[in-house]
Amino acid sequence: MGPGITFGFVVAGQLLISMLMEHFSLMGGSHHSISIGRGSGMLLIIVGVEVMKKF
């Protein structure tokens, strides 16, 4: 696994955790629920990393 794919997984993981933390208002943060736009954006990032793995 190259550095680009590793970096992609790190960014995707950080975004997923932050999205869940905002949804459940953890650590005193403000509440932002998971919407279709946010979920589809996260899905596009994961799909992009998977496409990078194939090439």
Automatic annotation (TrEMBL):
Residue spans crossing the bilayer: 7-26, 32-52
InterPro entries given in the database record: YdcZ (IPR006750)
Keywords, comma-separated and alphabetical: Membrane, Transmembrane, Transmembrane helix
Name of the protein in question: EamA-like transporter family protein
Source species of the chain: Chryseobacterium elymi
Lineage: Bacteria, Pseudomonadati, Bacteroidota, Flavobacteriia, Flavobacteriales
